Task: inverse folding
């Protein structure tokens, strides 16, 4: 045990000083690991890292490629934020995060494909906010992923394609105000969203939630196959979003609201079977494709208007 404690302390000092010899590898870190500061440029000493028992924070570094190839478990929060030149993030083996996953304020991310591809459990929220996606694509989650709280993908720049897969979420899934990138002159392109939909986070916008137990009675075998959002699925005022896929989920206990997404062309809800509250599809001016081949019933209201098709 004494050797493990000594190694952990050494790793913390390396992270702060940015001087990590390539011949010393760390497997497990006990406590909170913070990789902070502009001097941290070489992550070779993390190649063997398999577990952090507390929080793992990567903040304000000059890393261009962040790779934890063997990391399987983070006991607390996983936070990757404010890394100005970070372009690639790879966590291919990560299975469990006990707290939140937060990816925020990283202005140079090229694209995230297969992000959290092996994840089974996130104990808290999954938040992807205020990043810039140079290649415009975000593919996140796995067929076994259970998120204990909510999912928010909001206020990112350049995000055109979102593909989200999960087994369940304990609260709302929100895709909100993701905007276009810059034009050739470097001017920010406004999202141009309609004002017909209220922001999900605006005052008074509380959505009454019905839960999975309000569905018609199901057999034991059918109950095992329920893959639910215990909340609402909100997609609003995304000025740059062109395609959106929500995979795996077959029950939404609250409302599905897809509104005022100016450039949204296609939605894939191929697993969806039941909505317990309402379905609102409004003011998506370019929407030409909605795929929901397994859909059976809305146990509430239905409103569709102002879309292309």
Result:
């Amino acid at each position: 045990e004494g050797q493990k404690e000594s190694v952990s302390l050494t790793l913390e000092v390396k992270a702060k000083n940015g001087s990590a010899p390539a011949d010393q590898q760390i497997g497990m870190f006990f406590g909170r690991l913070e990789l902070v500061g502009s001097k941290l440029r070489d992550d070779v000493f993390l190649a063997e890292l398999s577990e952090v028992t507390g929080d793992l924070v990567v903040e304000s570094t000059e890393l261009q490629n962040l790779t934890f190839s063997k990391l399987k478990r983070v006991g607390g929060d996983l936070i990757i934020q404010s890394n100005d030149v970070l372009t690639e993030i790879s966590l291919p083996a990560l299975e469990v995060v006990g707290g939140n996953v937060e990816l925020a304020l990283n202005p140079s991310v090229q694209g995230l494909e297969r992000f959290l591809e092996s994840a089974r459990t996130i104990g808290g929220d999954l938040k992807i906010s205020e990043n810039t996606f140079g290649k415009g694509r975000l593919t996140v989650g796995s067929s076994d992923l259970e998120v204990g709280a909510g999912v928010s993908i909001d206020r990112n720049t350049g995000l055109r394609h979102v593909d989200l897969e999960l087994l369940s979420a304990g609260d709302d899934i929100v895709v909100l105000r993701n905007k276009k990138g810059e034009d050739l002159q470097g001017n920010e392109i406004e999202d141009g969203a309609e004002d017909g939909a209220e922001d999900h986070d605006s005052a008074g916008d509380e959505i009454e939630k019905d839960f999975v137990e309000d569905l018609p009675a199901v057999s034991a075998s059918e109950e095992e196959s329920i893959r639910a959002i215990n909340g609402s699925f909100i997609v609003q005022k995304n000025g740059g979003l062109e395609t959106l896929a929500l995979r795996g989920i077959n029950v939404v206990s609250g409302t599905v609201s897809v509104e005022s997404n100016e450039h949204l062309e296609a939605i894939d809800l191929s697993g969806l079977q039941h909505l317990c509250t309402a379905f609102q599809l409004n003011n998506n001016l370019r929407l030409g494709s909605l795929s929901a081949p397994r859909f059976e019933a809305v146990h509430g209201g239905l409103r569709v208007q102002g879309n292309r098709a």
Observations:
- The first strand starts at residue 28 and ends at 29.
- The two ends are 64 Å apart (CA to CA).
